[in-house]
Structure formats: structure tokens, C-alpha cells
Design goal:
Blueprint lengths: L1 H26 L3 E2 L12 H14 L18 H16 L4 H18 L3 H23 L4 E2 L11 H18 L12
Antiparallel strand pairs: 1-2
Helix pairs in contact: 1-2, 2-6, 3-6, 4-6, 5-6
């Protein structure tokens, strides 16, 4: 029951925080929803972000093996602030998509280099590929649109933003590993 409760909390937090984060792109005119309900967003947006939180955080099980007895990190503050900074970078730099893409990719590489781990690289690349493909597919249905799409209906910087998503969701997974039902103590 504790695991189910933790997953439900993860979904709810992802729904609220993700929807609020998406407001950055709505308010800065980076994207738009053709049938908004509240504050320029469609009614399904919280469900999408809640589901994304479940998939992305729990997906780290595929890449990360925490050694038995290894204490989990205690804070989400720095990774969350760095992610919000990356999100704002995409909004503030919307007129310079290649510069934003390069800057975000370089910042991610630096963050990984500071504390290198194979799982960071693999999860980052998987999430940077998968996230934009999901958004491209969703945008292709007409559910929402980026104002300046570059490839497949999404901005060129989107994979680099997802690299930063991978570091935040990894930290969430590590902090709440036991509550989420993680039982991966070594290869």
C-alpha cells in the first residue's frame, strides 16, 4: 500500500508541478493549445504531466542500480532549480533555438561530467529521444503546437531540455527509491 500511495503522490506532484512549469511556455508564447480551459492550457495537461512523472521517474529502474546500503541523496533543491532554469532558458531564448539547444546540451554535459555515471548518460539519451518524439506525436494530433517548431513540429532545443528532465527525474528516483518500490540493489 505504501508503494501505491507513493506512486499516487508522484502522479499528483507531477501533474501540479508539470502543469505549472508548462505555464512558462504558455505565458512566454512558446506553445499554445487550440482548446484551452484555464490559463491557456487544455484540461488534459495535468494528466499528461502526472503520467510523464510516473514513466520518467520509474523509468530510471532500467538504467540505475543503487548498491545495497548506499544512502539515497537527501535533496531535490539543486536539481529542481537547475531544471527550472533550463525551462526558463527555453522561454527566454525562444528566438535563438540553436543557441538554446547548444547551451542546454553543454550545461547537461558539464553536470554529468561533475559526477559521471553511465546511467546518467544512457537515461539522458533515452529521455532526450523519447520525450520529443512523444511531444511530436501529440502535436501532430493537433492537441498543442509550438510557435517555432524546427523538426517534427517541436523546437530543436527540446531534446536538450529533456536531458535536464533526466537529471531531475533521476534525483527524484534516488530520493524516493524505497517508497516507490525500487528493489534494484546492484546488477
Amino acid at each position: 500500500m505504501r508503494r501505491a500511495r507513493a506512486q499516487a503522490v508522484l502522479f499528483l506532484v507531477g501533474a501540479v508541478v508539470g502543469t505549472l512549469g508548462d505555464q512558462i511556455h504558455v505565458q512566454f508564447d512558446v506553445l499554445w493549445y487550440p482548446r484551452p480551459l484555464l490559463c491557456g492550457q487544455a484540461p488534459w495537461v495535468p494528466f499528461l504531466f502526472g503520467t510523464a512523472a510516473l514513466v520518467l521517474v520509474n523509468g530510471h529502474r532500467l538504467f540505475l542500480r543503487r548498491p545495497a546500503g548506499d544512502p539515497p541523496p537527501s535533496s531535490l533543491a539543486a536539481p529542481a532549480m537547475l531544471f527550472v532554469a533550463a525551462y526558463f532558458t527555453t522561454a527566454l531564448g525562444k528566438e535563438r533555438p540553436l543557441l538554446v539547444a547548444g547551451g542546454l546540451a553543454a550545461a547537461w554535459a558539464l553536470r554529468v561530467a561533475v559526477a559521471p555515471a553511465t546511467d546518467k548518460l544512457l537515461a539522458g539519451l533515452a529521455i532526450a529521444a523519447g520525450g520529443p518524439l512523444v511531444e511530436a506525436a501529440l502535436s501532430a494530433t493537433g492537441a498543442f503546437f509550438y510557435r517555432r517548431p524546427d523538426v517534427l513540429g517541436v523546437p530543436v532545443w527540446l531534446p536538450a531540455l529533456y536531458l535536464h528532465v533526466s537529471l531531475l527525474t533521476r534525483q527524484i528516483y534516488l530520493v524516493f527509491h524505497d517508497e516507490l518500490g525500487g528493489d534494484d540493489h546492484g546488477p
